[in-house]
Amino acid sequence: MKTLLRSAFPDLWRGVLVAILTAGCTSEMTTIVPKPSENAKVIASVEGTGCGVLCIGYPPISFIPIGLNERIQSAYSDALSKAPGATGLRNVTLQEDWYWIVVGTMRYVTITGEAVK
Q: What average pLDDT score do residues 46-58 get?
């Protein structure tokens, strides 16, 4: 019985550890802006960027976010501002790139889409 418990405990511990680590990596889907109506008029194709920094440490364990949470909204607003009078974007694509810098990572988001009115 003791041998069975000793051999099962490491597997149980690993399972609990994996469950704890992956539970912290989940989130709900978030809508950045409302979906434009189907009869909205396309004004132009636009592109916008936003960036943030994840500081201190090697990229997998960096832990100080600077502007990281706002980078998508910033990219969306930047794209929307390039078409005066636009009220939204449709057919949106998002691309994220990151670059290692000495103090952490720089994260760039590029949003492209059709500006509509």
A: 87
